[in-house]
Amino acid sequence: MREETVRFFTDLFRNNGPVLEILDADHSFLNADLARFYGVSTNGFSGSDEWRRVSGLRSLGRGGILGQASTLARQSGASRTSPILRGNWISEVILGEKLPKPPKDVPRLPEDESLEQLTVRQLTEKHSTDPKCSGCHRRIDAYGFSLESFDAVGRFREKDLGGRPIDARVQAPDGTLLEGPAGLRHYLSHQRKEAFLRQFGRKLLGYSLGRGVLLSDEPLLADLQRKLSARDARVGAAIETIVASPQFVQIGRAHV
What we know:
Low-confidence stretches: none
Strand content: 5-15%
């Protein structure tokens, strides 16, 4: 699972791919084991050590990072999905929204969904009615609910461990209807495109400079976003803007 993500991003940067492919790519890199796990034909694979670029994955909810098992498993509980973890990850990591820490006295959700009479979504919605928590949950839960078609390790499912049908239709915080993973992918790459591009710029700039992004970097971030939009949002535009910036040049001189 991890190798898929590494190969996906390596290919994106080496080939100057569109930044939005991070969300809505129709391809990924699979070996035979991961292909079987995703329900993809293994015809043509010579062995489990062979990795291939496979297209046509969007219809299966795969392709970009939202459908990669590494992402889905990392943002889950040990034995059940977690719409809260997945939604919080999308809000903070993908969109760059800052959320306050949860209150210390909020009870945890049950770990084993198969023993519960309610679905994980119903348990989360009940949990989120607490006035101390509802403000943040209104901002994040819909994103997590739209990914409930994937189990705790990122395998597609139509029913949960208790045999209950999965409901992945939900309204985003702005009222947009999200039809499962495909709806979330479209929403993030269209309605929330600018927020995503800005967050991509922040993450890439911080990584490139080896430090946190500062208030003085705001003009560079604004320039990054303009360049991404003007050049069909390809990663090369962001890289060129960063390496030509005073911030990057000064770090280079400091190491000479």
